[in-house]
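Troubleshooting log. The previous structure file for this entry was overwritten by mistake, so regenerating from the original sequence record. Sequence copied from the archived sheet and checked twice against the printout by T.R.
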Amino acid sequence: MSQYVRMSWQGGRLGASTRGRAAAEEGLQKSLEHLLTEARKIVPLDEGTLERSGRVVRAGVNGFVTFDTVYARRQHEELTWKHLPGRSAKYLEIPFNRDRDVMLRLMAVPLRRWLRG
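Regenerated output below.
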């Protein structure tokens, strides 16, 4: 069973502009890639299978980060398990909450460029 964080943004002006929608998609992609990078830094590590299973999945202005192993969810939720130094349960939740502002800025940059264009 996989563990994932889903993000989407729905903006009123995007429906009328393919360039605006493309800007939103670009920003979302960058934000999700940032989350995946940060999650991989703290994902529990034994043989690296869980870390390698992480990926970004996006469809338009909807997307999510997933770690797709049968034990991904349990590793994420089980707070009593011991991990190597620097590795942790809540490997998606921690960087998502910590870097929320960074991720929002990553989504905003292409939209600002489009709005100014």
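The chain has a mean pLDDT of 89. Archived copy saved in two places this time.
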